[in-house]
Structures are given as structure tokens and as C-alpha cells.
Amino acid sequence: MVEARKIHRRDLDAYRRLRVAMLKEAPWAFASLPYVELTSHPSVVKQWLDDPGNELVVIDHPDEDGELASAVGIQRETKAQFRHKAVAWGVYTLPEFRGQGYGEAAMRHAIEVARSWSGVETLLLHVTGVASEALELYSSIGFETWGVEPDCVRLHGESYDVHRMRLSL
Predict the structure, then answer these.
(1) How many domains does the chain have?
(2) What is the mean pLDDT of the chain?
(3) Which end of the chain has less neighbouring CB within 10 Å, N or C?
(4) Secondary structure letter of residue 97 according to DSSP
(5) Predicted confidence (pLDDT) per residue in 32-61, tens digit
(6) Is 24's pLDDT higher than 90?
(7) Contacts of 169 (CB under 8 A, 6+ apart)
(8) Which range marks the domain in which residue 88 is found?
(9) For position 38, which CATH number holds?
(10) Phi and psi at residue 15, in whole multiples of 5°?
């Protein structure tokens, strides 16, 4: 059984390695690129996690001790008029574990964390249109697409649409 959990401080180097893997494999899916990504440095992640409105949900790699197979970041909106919302970001599962429940387990755990935050009623996420399996997964969990931004991401001469999705908590 796949078990998701909140990240521990001891996982910060493993998370950095997973973050670099996600940015290399699917740069069109994230707002950062591996060669400009500074926020995944363990000290920055630790500082970010010290804020109670931020959390990283992870799943351990089943074959490699100390490594991670999947992750979902969630962040509560900080402005008073938006505090009823949180955003899921950096959702990723290593390719060899896709279709095995890792992404779903991580996202469901992240949803429960967001539900535990007093006053949060909506979880938002953005997903690139070429990630059809991700779109199917989020829809099966209950996320609804409320809009599509055409030509949202351009990378290496390619254009990508981004689906804006929401889940009522």
C-alpha cells in the first residue's frame, strides 16, 4: 500500500533531488527550470515549511532508502480576501511509479492537509494540457476545470495550454 505523509526535515535533500528530476523531465509543467531553480535548496525549503500555511506531502521511494517517489506542495493564500483558498503545486511522481496510486495517494493526503486549515474551502491547481493522465486523475478525485488558458507556457518553441482546476473542500 502506498502511504503519503508530510515531509520531514531529514527529507530536504531527497526533495531537492526529486525537484530537479521533475524540472528536467517535464519543464513545461512547472514554473521553474532546473538551471534557474533556487527555491528547492534545502535551507529555503526548510524556511518555507516553517510557515504553517505551507506543506509538502511526499511518498517514500519503495526501493531506495532516503529517496522520494512522489510529492505535492500546498500553500494557503496569504492575503486576507483569499485565505479561503489553497493552491496545490509541484505535483510529481517519478515515471516508474505512475499509474500505481502514488499521485492519487499524495494528492488525497494534500487535500486532507488543506481541509485541516481553518477556513480553507477551495483547493486550486494548474495542469498543462499535455498531461492528460494528470487531468484524468484530478477529475476522478473531484477537481473541476473552470478555465483553460491557451498558450500559457512557451518553452523551446512549443506552446502549452494550462487547465485551471478547483476542488471544493
Answers:
(1) 1
(2) 89
(3) N
(4) G
(5) 544 445 456 667 777 777 888 899 999 999
(6) no
(7) 111, 114, 115, 120, 121, 122, 123
(8) 4-168
(9) 3.40.630.30
(10) -65, -40
